[in-house]
Amino acid sequence: MTRSQNRAENVWIVDDDRSIRWVLEKALQQEGMEPVAFDSADAALARLQRQHPDVLISDIRMPGTSGLDLLATVRERYPQLPVIIMTAHSDLDSAVASYQGGAFEYLPKPFDVDEAVALVRRALAHTHEQEAQNEETLQTRTPEIIGEAPAMQEVFRAIGRLSHSNITVLINGESGTGKELVAHALHRHSPRARNPFIALNMAAIPKDLMESELFGHEKGAFTGAAVQRRGRFEQADGGTLFLDEIGDMPAETQTRLLRVLADGEFYRVGGHTPIKVDVRIIAATHQNLEGLVQAGKFREDLFHRLNVIRIHIPKLSERREDIPALAQHFLARAAQELAVEPKVLKAQTQDYLRNLPWPGNVRQLENTCRWITVMASSREVLIEDLPPEMLSQHQDSAPDGHWEHGLRTWADQELARGVTNLLDIAVPAFERIMIETALKHTAGRRRDAAQLLGWGRNTLTRKIKELDMNVDGSDDDESE
Ligand SMILES: Nc1ncnc2c1ncn2[C@@H]1O[C@H](COP(=O)(O)OP(=O)(O)OP(=O)(O)O)[C@@H](O)[C@H]1O
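# adenosine-5'-triphosphate complex -> structure
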């Protein structure tokens, strides 16, 4: 049930012109709605801190914050909330700015009151549709991590097996393969699920801030430490601390981390009181930690503490069968974020994406789907609609032309289905197509067709017989 079926629709009217507010208020009340009028965008913004309407109608030019700025704030906080922008200065610029700002509709003044009410009704219908869709998505419960591929099933099994434990886990996998997602799933399915999950990327923190980031600091511990601050370890107390790119942790921090893991307590930077915490560590890296240990860049004792259970996340190119489902998932998500209709990949586009190299893994696929959602011109996405760099990338990685690409995909799929003696199917099919096409070009004359194909006439005749082809056209050559 949508909430609005149980109560009157709440419509906010924002205009500095009292008569407009009055006319709209009366008209909407008559329709059984519950309008609330504001004489400025600032007044509406203040109220927006506490609640939000089902639809908002706003003038553009008002003293103080403009209607377009109000629109921007609303879009940011409530992307699904429809906003109708009206203005007396009805010009192209205002209209364009409204739509670009994400307005649901643009209403030039003076307007017909019935027209305005009809617009509000349409906006409300739109909201209800979206609510219904959201509910549906929740009910169908999209899986949290997509992965039919055997290597991903292995990951799922590991998450399942670890679901009752608090054991330290080391996740290995290239950048963008979903390490953080897996770490989060480990947390969510652990006895700590109700406590915090804190993620920290070692590669993203400046070296000299790392200790205070992890362990916090006391007031005055160093220049700039104006107040006392709790570190990530304290924030994660009772829960899980995910240390991404652990291979980038500086040597001295490694030493401190090792001590915390051994003693279960630490000191804030500049502090003298030991702080006890109960934190589960999940670490991740795209690097070869054993290699770093051998090169003397990672402490061996810390490595052994972290390397209790290891989960390897495969590259996207090692689980190509998951690409269509992942793409569909990301297209749906991007469409929802941008409040547009989801794009659909044509079968050949899916095949094409399956065969790309994907050095950026799942994250690259996710970004590609966002790009498609914004840039593809029609609902159905063709190969040509893909980002230009994907089109050239494919040529770099496999020098296939269009048909060779199709053939490769077909062979892949047949072999995946367990078909054998593939050439017995492919070669006759290939020859049949070549013969039919050549004959079409010579209006059925076999001698000329043989020449186009680079065969002798007799070969062509024999092939036609062998392939049991039913070709039209005169056997002109024979009669000559
Ligand atoms: N199997 C999956 N199913 C659904 N979404 C996925 C999957 N794998 C990754 N993603 C999504 O792809 C994006 C990248 O994943 P994530 O941040 O977990 O990768 P990562 O390996 O931690 O990357 P990095 O090492 O660069 O931080 C995220 O938005 C994540 O939600």
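# post-check
Confidence is low (pLDDT under 50) at residues 1-5, 137-142.
The chain has four domains: 3-140, 150-314, 318-401, 422-479.
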